[in-house]
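Figure 6 in text form: structure in, sequence out.
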């Protein structure tokens, strides 16, 4: 048995990485790999003495033995996997592992126009290592009140146990891990020569100037948990002319607070303020997530278990630059027959009303819900009433009104693009709908100018 976790989820090139490791093996090594078009071997440590440390609880720092490694200054910015190799029989390296691996990011120097952000907070929210997470036996916190999880334990992208139903269309990796969405998108970028630097959401939380060094911030898959400083930094980036592309959904849904020197997070679920703090919407912190992304899960929905039925996306504005070269026309559909269906498993939408057969317009109440006045719905994926969740929202009762995945853009200094669905990366990589790749290229090229 061998498991581990980084002291911090990201490091600068030329600095020192601390890994905390517990093993019943007398000796182990660490093989470092960068994730690009698969694993790229970077270095292997010498033999290290193994120490078996006790397991901890999910809300507390596990304080396992420290091992320090110098990060070479010439290591490219990227997502790295530390493969923990217990001797003499190491577990084979794979992108989806529940032990013997730890994930960390090597940050860049600000030379790339494109900055890819990993959602470490969301990985940790579903990380059940130690017996609990925000979704299973959530550990309670009294000060501050709510549910509390430590980032200093195994898991958080790879190497731990993850809560959630398996993906009906791909059970090779749990949904809330690096392998499921981010690894696929990054691999596609590498295959197509798209260069980027990488960071975590903790870096955005801690370094207000980080985004100023890049033209485009990219978030993929499921970026659900945000602190106020994270959100402040991204909104300031857009206000100053920077761009953001969200190829995901259920974005900025929960509000968190980082504590213990930013090594743990608290969500006020179950605390005395409850929804007034842990949601961003008008019934919560009075900062609807729509004003950042243009859309919200409140106007979308979820389908977690089994095969889902969708109509795909219906094109609303075929002449927009996002659709350049796709050949799509008004009312055409894409993503209806892809595998998995492009719409789902969780979707973000805008407040919409019917505007004719296959046509939709922003609701008169959209601005009151937080939708930016410049938001343009470019394609709409309507959700049928048989979806497993169609959330309650302003102006509507439970499951009422139009719920959808809404692909769109808005401008507020810079431009914000949203795909409105978590599963964009899977369809992009498997090529089951060629329109998805062309739209992705248009967005990355148009907003990063690479």
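Output sequence:
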């Amino acid at each position: 048995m061998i498991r581990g976790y980084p002291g911090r989820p990201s490091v600068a090139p030329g600095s020192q990485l601390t890994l905390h490791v517990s093993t019943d093996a007398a000796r182990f090594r660490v093989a470092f790999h960068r994730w690009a078009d698969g694993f790229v071997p970077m270095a292997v440590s010498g033999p290290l003495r193994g120490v078996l440390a006790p397991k901890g609880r999910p809300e507390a720092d596990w304080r396992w033995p420290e091992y320090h490694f110098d990060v070479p200054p010439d290591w490219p910015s990227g997502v790295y996997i530390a493969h923990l190799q217990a001797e003499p029989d190491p577990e084979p390296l794979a992108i989806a592992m529940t032990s013997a691996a730890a994930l960390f990011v090597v940050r860049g120097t600000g030379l790339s126009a494109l900055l890819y952000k990993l959602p470490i907070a969301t990985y940790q929210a579903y990380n059940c290592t130690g017996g609990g997470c925000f979704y299973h036996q959530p550990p309670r916190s009294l000060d501050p009140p709510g549910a509390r999880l430590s980032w200093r334990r195994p898991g958080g992208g790879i190497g731990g146990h993850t809560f959630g139903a398996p993906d009906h269309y791909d059970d090779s990796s749990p949904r809330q891990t690096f392998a499921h969405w981010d690894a696929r998108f990054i691999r596609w970028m590498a295959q197509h020569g798209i260069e980027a630097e990488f960071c975590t959401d903790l870096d955005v939380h801690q370094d207000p100037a980080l985004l100023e060094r890049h033209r485009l911030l990219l978030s993929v898959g499921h970026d659900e948990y945000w602190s106020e400083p994270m959100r402040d930094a991204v909104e300031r980036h857009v206000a100053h002319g920077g761009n953001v592309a969200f190829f995901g959904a259920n974005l900025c849904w929960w509000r968190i607070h980082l504590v213990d020197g930013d090594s743990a997070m608290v969500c006020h679920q179950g605390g005395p303020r409850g929804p007034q703090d842990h949601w961003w919407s008008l019934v919560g912190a009075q900062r609807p997530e729509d004003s950042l992304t243009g859309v919200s899960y409140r106007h979308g929905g979820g389908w977690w278990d089994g095969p889902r039925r969708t109509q795909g996306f219906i094109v609303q504005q075929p002449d927009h630059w996002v659709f350049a070269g796709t050949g799509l026309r008004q009312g055409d559909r894409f993503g209806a027959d892809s595998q998995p269906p492009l719409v789902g498993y969780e979707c973000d939408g805008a407040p919409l009303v019917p505007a004719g057969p296959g046509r939709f317009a922003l609701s008169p109440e959209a601005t009151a819900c937080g939708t930016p006045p410049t938001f343009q719905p470019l394609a709409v994926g309507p959700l049928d009433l048989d979806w497993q969740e169609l959330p309650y929202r302003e102006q509507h009762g439970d499951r009422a009104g139009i719920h959808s995945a809404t692909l769109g853009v808005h401008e507020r200094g810079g431009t914000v693009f949203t795909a409105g669905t978590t599963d964009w990366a899977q369809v992009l990589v498997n090529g089951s709908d060629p329109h998805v790749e062309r739209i992705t290229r248009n967005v990355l090229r148009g907003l990063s100018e690479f």
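Caption detail: The radius of gyration is 21 Å.
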